[in-house]
Amino acid sequence: MLTTLISILASLIPARYRGRLFHASNLDVQRGGLLSGILQIVLPAGYLWLRYPGWYQAYVAGIVDQVAAKGGDQTAQAAAALGAGTFALYTYLISPLTLLLIYLMLEGIVRLTAFVTSKEILPSLPLQLIAWVHGWSSHAARERELGPRMVDVVKAGPTGQFITIESCRPKQWDTLLTIAYMDKM
């Protein structure tokens, strides 16, 4: 159970930090990515759903109390309650906590879709933004260390099926990368 929770936490963190923070080999980040996507949809949606009735009652009661404080009779208070009900949902949807929960649900949908379609584990966007800024700041230093850029050289093999790419920079190869050469993938 603890391993599953740590796997869920690890899937939220960008890959560049995941190896440094979670170097235990028994973590299943794939399962953590799936579960965190599901939880990131279900938990905020459930909280939004369960929070609304109590919030609605407090919202309407606040408006009725304002009408009563200004000397409104029972009819005015009832009219205020009906009018408040019309705008209550809109007010609920634009409250900061509701917007945060909706954002978390949408991020969960994107993360779950990425996992289901391509087994890609997307980290949480705020953490990924931090990783991008960190990467951009260290990119200039790496470029100076590697020297001036040169054009990659592509050499075809004897049968033309295999190619060799000579580059002045290391490449990040993975299963999502495709190269087009002579109009062929």
Query: How would you sum up the major sheet?
Result: 2 strands, antiparallel
Average pLDDT for all residues: 86
Physical arrangement of strands within the biggest beta sheet:
1-2
- Principal-axis shape equals elongated
End-to-end CA span: 43 Å
Give unreliable regions as ranges: none
Structural class: mainly alpha
Q: From the alpha carbons, calculate the radius of gyration and give it in angstroms.
A: 27 Å
Strand content: under 5%
Number of strands: 2
Q: State the helix count.
A: 6
Helix proportion range: 55-70%
Q: Helices and strands, in N-to-C order?
A: HHHHHHEE
Short description:
With 185 residues, this protein is mainly alpha-helical. Helix content is 67%, strand content 4%.
What features would you describe in this structure?
The protein has 185 residues and is mainly alpha-helical. It has helices spanning 2-12, 15-21, 29-69, 74-93, 96-118, 125-146, and strands at residues 153-156, 163-166. A hairpin with a 6-residue loop joins strand 1 (153-156) and strand 2 (163-166). Helix 1 (2-12) packs across helix 3 (29-69) and helix 3 packs antiparallel against helix 4 (74-93).
